[in-house]
Amino acid sequence: MTTDTDTDTEKFIKKPKKTPKQKGLSIAKNLLIYGLVFAVIYTAINWWRQPIMPANPQLQLTDYQGQVVDLAALSNEQPTLVYFWGTWCPICSITSPTIDKLAAANDYPVVTIAIKSGTDQELHRYLNENSYRFTTINDQEGSIFADWQGQVTPSYVILKDGEMTQGLTGIQPLWSLKLRLWLSSVF
Predict the structure, then answer these.
(1) 125 to each of 64, 110, 117, 132, how far by Cα in Å?
(2) Is residue 72 pLDDT above 80, yes or no?
(3) What is the pLDDT of residues 81-107, one digit of tens each?
(4) By C-alpha distance, which of 187, 149, 155, 163 is closest to 83?
(5) By C-alpha distance, which of 89, 109, 97 is closest to 151?
(6) What residue numbers bound the domain in which 33 lies?
(7) What is d(CA 185, CA 81) in angstroms, rounded to the nearest whole number?
(8) Is residue 133 included in any domain, yes or no?
(9) What span, in angstroms and rounded, lies between the C-alpha atoms of 43 and 68?
(10) How confident is the model at residue 10 (pLDDT cuts 50, 70, 90)?
(11) I need a labelling partner for 22 at 20 to 30 A (CA). Which of 40, 51, 131, 145 fits?
């Protein structure tokens, strides 16, 4: 049984103050927990929104300049990144320079598919204005993206031996794309 004096005493008992080391560990623990929760949620959303390879995909396409691009042949040599984007997509304006750097490095083949981005001439003008040199297929009607059941731009697919090994969406740093391509070449 507690008395009023016991309750009064409890009010005056102070918890010992945390040392700077304890505070730092507490902050680090919270950051780790929040980071893990974020990573799990991000991975789940990315998995849910990723493109899905069609049963009989058209892997031989023609770029906006009339050149044939054979994704199956490219991906037989090494993993190939397919980047779905649009000139109208604000996030793509952030991710496209990264894709251009990846393509310029020539470590892995990169093929981009511009979704509903105008005529070949309009697309050519846009690519020149932004100094993009990556290979680009003009998906004027969005049918290629629809075949892949794409939901958002930007979306990425990594092909190896004509098969999809990974699919992802959103902003991806250069190191992450290189790592994913390398992993696809190893496994």
Answers:
(1) 11, 20, 11, 10
(2) yes
(3) 999 999 999 999 999 999 999 999 999
(4) 155
(5) 89
(6) 18-49
(7) 12
(8) yes
(9) 34
(10) low
(11) 40
Instruction: Indicate the helix (H) or strand (E) that contains 6.
Output: helix 4-12
Whether the CB-CB separation of 154 and 84 falls below 8 Å is answered with: yes
Residues 23 and 72 in one domain: no
Relative to beta strand 68-70, strand 60-62 is antiparallel
Query: Of 53, 112, 109, nearest to 78 (Cα)?
Result: 109
Does residue 27 sit in the same domain as residue 95? no
Phi, psi of 40 (to 5 degrees): -65, -45
pLDDT value, residue 8: 59
Number of domains forming the structure of the chain? 2
Residues 40 and 87 in one domain: no
Indicate if 28 and 70 belong to the same structural domain: no
Distances from the Cα of 93 to the Cα of 80, 83, 84, angstroms: 21, 13, 12
Give CA–CA dist 157/111, Å, rounded: 10
Dihedral sign for Cα atoms in the order 44, 179, 158, 165: negative
Band (pLDDT 50/70/90 cuts) for residue 9 is low
